[in-house]
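Re: your question from the hallway

Yes, I did run it. Sequences:
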Amino acid sequence: MTKLTKNTTVFTLNNGVKIPAIGLGTWQASEKGAAHNATKVAIENGYRHIDTAAGYQNEGEVGQGVKDSGVPRDEVFITTKLTNEDHKRVAQAFEESLKKLDVDYVDLYLVHWPVSTDPVSKKPFDDWDFVDTYKEVQKIYKSGKAKSIGVSNFTVKKLEKLLSDPEVDVIPAVNQIEAHPFLIQPELTEYLKKKGILIEAYSPLGSTNAPLVKNEVVSKIAEKNGVTPTSVLISWAIQRGTVVLPKSVTDSRIIANLDTFTLTTEDFEALNKINETFGTKRFANPPWNNFDD
Ligand SMILES: NC(=O)c1ccc[n+]([C@@H]2O[C@H](COP(=O)([O-])OP(=O)(O)OC[C@H]3O[C@@H](n4cnc5c(N)ncnc54)[C@H](OP(=O)(O)O)[C@@H]3O)[C@@H](O)[C@H]2O)c1
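Structure:
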C-alpha cells in the first residue's frame, strides 16, 4: 500500500516568492456559504493556498474563511483574478477585490483571460488589447499590493506578443491553464519553462463532477497503489512541477485532496502518454476565447 502524506511542497516563482503547490479551487463554489466553509476547512486541514477570482463572486466568503480559520493572513497564499469585463478599469476592479477579500494585498493577481468584454453586450471589445491590461496590472505589482502577477489562459502566441512589448518589464510569474493528463500542452509547457513562468494547473480532475477519475488508466494506477484516482491526478500534477488547484466544496474531499504520493516512473510516464490512447480533452473552452491564437 502506498503511503499518502499531506502535501507541503512549495515552488518558488520567478520573483523569489514562494507558492504552495496545492491550492484550493473555488470556481462554482457559489452556493451561499460554500466558499466560506471550503476555505475555512481547507486551511484548518493544512492548505495554505486559495484560488479565487472576481468572476467567481465569492471573494467575500473566501476572505472571511481565511479569517475564520484562525491562521494568520500572511501564512495563506491568496490569488484572485481580473474579470474580462474589467480590463478597462483595472485599478478600480483590483481595489474592489481587496475590499471584498478584506485584505490589504493579494499574493497573486492574474489577468483571468486575454479577452476584454463589454459588460453590456458580453462581446469582446475590438478597441482594446490585453497587453494594455497587463500594463495596468504591472502598476499594481509595482505598488506592492500584489506580491506577484501573472496571466491565465495565455497561449505561446499571446505570451510572445506580451513579452515583446517594450513597456512590459515584469515577466508573469505564472500562467494558469487547464492541465491534466488529457491536456499536457507540450509546446506551451516547454515555452513557459524556458521563460521561467510557472504553470498553475486548473481543472485537474476534468472540472465539474471530476470525469477524469473514471478513466481506466488512472483507475488502474490508483488501484495498484491503494489510493484514489483523485490522488493520482493531483500527485501527477505536482510531480510534473506544476501548481495544482483541485476544487471541492465537500469537507472530506477537500481534506483528501491534500494527500499525495510519488508515482513510479512507469506510472508517471503512462499518465504522460494517456492522450495517445484517449485523445486530448479540453473542458474549458468559452466561445469568446481563441486557443488557436
Ligand atoms: N483560470 C481559469 O480560467 C480557470 C478555469 C477553471 C478553473 N480554474 C480554477 O481551478 C479550479 C479547479 O478547476 P475546476 O473547478 O474546473 O475543476 P476540478 O478541480 O478539476 O474538479 C472539480 C470537481 O471535482 C469534484 N471533486 C473534487 N474532489 C473530489 C474527490 N476527491 N473525489 C471526487 N470528486 C471530487 C468536485 O465536486 P464537489 O465540489 O462537489 O466536491 C467538482 O465537481 C477552479 O475551482 C478554479 O479555482 C481556473
